[in-house]
Amino acid sequence: MSAMPTITYNFGYLDEQTKRMIRRAILKAIAIPGYQVPFASREMPMPYGWGTGGVQVTAAILGPDDILKVIDQGSDDTTNAVAIRSFFAATAGVRTTTRTKEATIIQTRHRVPETKLGPEQILVYQVPIPEPLRFLEPRETETRTLHALADYGLMHVKLYEDIARHGHIATTYAYPVMVAGRYVTDPSPIPKFDNPKLDDCPALQLFGAGREQRIYAIPPHTRVVSLDFEDHPFRVQRFDRPCALCGAEDVYLDEVILDDRGGRMFVCSDTDHCDQRRAAGHAGTMAPQGAPKGTSKP
Amino acid sequence: MYVAVKGGETAIRNAHALLAEARRGDPAVPEIGIDQIREQLALAVDRVMAEGSLFDRDLAALALKQARGDTIEAIFLLRALRTTLPRFGAALPVDTATMTLRRRISATFKDLPGGQLLGPTFDYTHRLLDPALATQTPAAPAPAAKATPKVSAKAASKAAGKAAPKPPMGETSTPAAPVPRVTDLLGDEKLIEPAPADTGAEPPDLTRTPLAFPADRATRLQNLARGDEGFLLALGYSTQRGYARTHPFVGEIRIGEVEVELFVEELGFAVPLGAVSVTECQMVNQFHGTAEAPPQFTRGYGLVFGQSERKAMSMALVDRAMRWEELGETLSAPAQDAEFVLSHSDNVQSTGFVEHLKLPHYVDFQAELGLVRLMRGAHAAASDALQDGDPE
Amino acid sequence: MASPPLAMGFADPARDAQRVFKALMSALARPGRKQRLAARLSPPPPLTPELAAVALTLLDFETAVWLDAPLAGAPAVSDFLRFHAAPRIIAAPHDADFALISDAARMPPFEVFAQGTPDYPDRATTLLVQVAKLATGALRLEGPGIAGRVGVSAAPLPDDFPARIAANAAGFPLGIDLFLIAPDAVVGLPRSVRLAEGN
């Protein structure tokens, strides 16, 4: 048979030309907070819908001195987070961590860490559908005009219809926000519990949607307001009990089914936050004795 | 006692090992070679090259092997490599009028200059499983190139159970000689709209520029050429069933090899890079005329890597349907809606997003669970209140 | 006579470009705040090493670049850019993705550059401006990326620079974005920055 061509990859997988293209898009995204910048998204070695936008953004900003943390559903150990982390460890040789405080870049799917982020950190969100108006108006040509005119009546009508039907707004995740008073923006499918963390955040927040070919950004210390009404102010979810492992209150919890007799427990969705608290001596009602790190295998 | 689930890394490692084992199958069966896939599953290789947008038979065969025969997975593998390859420039437009033909048919004329050349087609085979293929036999010699049209035409008519027709003129044509395109023959009489003029403008590159709407025809064709065969087939079919009917005739389908040339600035002339196999379909569609312009047939165009008539024909149908605005027709069907078609044609994108539903979504589900419980609580309270208020 | 040897580009393209980009990104995300910018290049004058490093980080064959008179007047500068980045060097500032400006005091009015469109505000020119000095100073700014207010000063700049920034902000989301590039440091002034009260 004929000879196979030699296949080689660049630092961080992407070639330099692709990185430049993504970097130019990131700069425009930062300059126009909340506006979705089109970019020529590439095929990545993981499927569309599995974080290709976030991975391209991370690959374009990542340097040899960075320390990378990857979470999915708040956890470092979910399989897709593991796969993305090992991708960058292999292609860029960067150091990785599970500790929020140590990381310089945190790539996330569906959560914002509970630990307050600092000015030296960058949060990269994986975004499936970047257009907050998409489910109200499927056509890109239409939604683009609505953004150009800052015509967000459609969104307010939708939220108000919720109130009329259910007595309250029935959107629990991917809850739309207004960024810097101009663009209505999709915060990615984080639970609305996390929305307040986007406001006046000291860290730069970058959003990558690979399949939909969009990058957008929220610069540090930018006003981010969840849409609401005077008579129906925005409210986050509340849990009526603390984390069963670390006792944390005011955090987002995962519901774990323990048996088929209705047994349930609620634990931190942010696994690092839970680990750090337990290491510091906090314990919940179902904390295992003598295993404060919670790293043992089941 | 519950502890947070760990072990994602181990689970992934194990899954990779199991995949490698499943890919190999029974180790007692000899491992399949890339050369065997390239030579004997050539149409699968062609589809992977076409939708992977990369003409390299060995890499496509490798991708098919690695993907365990899953075409879309193989296309994805090829695309993920292609995207990292450096660009040296854009080739000159290929001239399909000069291609070396392996197959060339027209449905609009019984006979025409250059003839009808059946070539290697399933068209007139009886779809009966052939037990002879279940055993390994030495390959039978193929008919000589010059005799191909004759043999094929006779075999075809025989297979179709009809009396052999008058031998077509094609019998005397040598495949290597330039064969005029049917659309050029119609064009000489101005019976068909002219092909769009070559403006000399740099062609769009969808892999380097994000798709934006409205998309020009060059962009649409590029998108369709990479688009999923099944998706385009369904859309093309829908136009035949009345969803934006365009009265199509196959003006011509030609399959063969065409030279690719690159103009080198430093040399001041074009140098040949080699040949690629393509399938071209020129669809001749419903005439169109206005008060100013006399009636003319219109065009739908399809061009794909390798041998794939199904894809090239579907592409030509959908291309024509999407030209509704330019031709003064009304928008009434999905196949005409460029924004809909182009946004959903890419199978690497669509398979990724459909399959991403496998990923954990428990954080958002928890949010919905909380809301449904809340609403059920409110509903129950409201029903109770209603019952309490009922006079006994 | 043989032409003089071409100045070198990045020694380590992937890592050098990443470091420069990180400085640019931080500068734009925190307008008015100086970010360190190290450049180990010796480009032909009047291109400074820092502006050269920024150019090699952002420009390539997919970008159109406009050069101000002193840069356009130095063929060695165009040769350097073409060899290392291959941008399209164009004469019309309105079509430029990037504008390279060496004579900051005489930079053209912002309006001559692409401002973006209401549908695509990102299709606007980014100005890369060489300055001699950057410091915290009297130009008080606020907006996204700034906690409270920040003061910046740079020299040389046109006298009406504050008014230009104010007018640029007034057109948001349209407008140009600008980097002030000094030896060892860069400051970003995206279109989102506004003059604070009391300037």
Explain what this protein looks like in three dimensions.
- The complex is a heterotrimer of chains A (298), B (392) and C (199).
- By secondary structure, chain A is of the alpha/beta class.
- Chain A folds into two domains: 211 residues, Bacterial phosphonate metabolism protein PhnH (Rossmann fold, 3-Layer(aba) Sandwich); 61 residues, no CATH class.
- Chain A is built from seven helices and twelve strands.
- In chain A, a hairpin with a 4-residue loop joins β8 and β9.
- Chain B folds into two domains: 74 residues, no CATH class; 221 residues, no CATH class.
- Chain C has a single domain, classed as 3-Layer(aba) Sandwich (Rossmann fold).
- In chain C, α1 crosses α2.
- The chains are: A alpha/beta (298), B alpha+beta (392), C alpha/beta (199).
- Chains in contact: A-B, A-C.
- Chains A and C meet through α1, β1 and α4 of A and α1 of C.
- Chain C: It comes from Aquabacter spiritensis.
- Chain C: InterPro entries: PhnH-like_sp, Phosphonate_metab_PhnH.
- Chain C: This is Alpha-D-ribose 1-methylphosphonate 5-triphosphate synthase subunit PhnH.
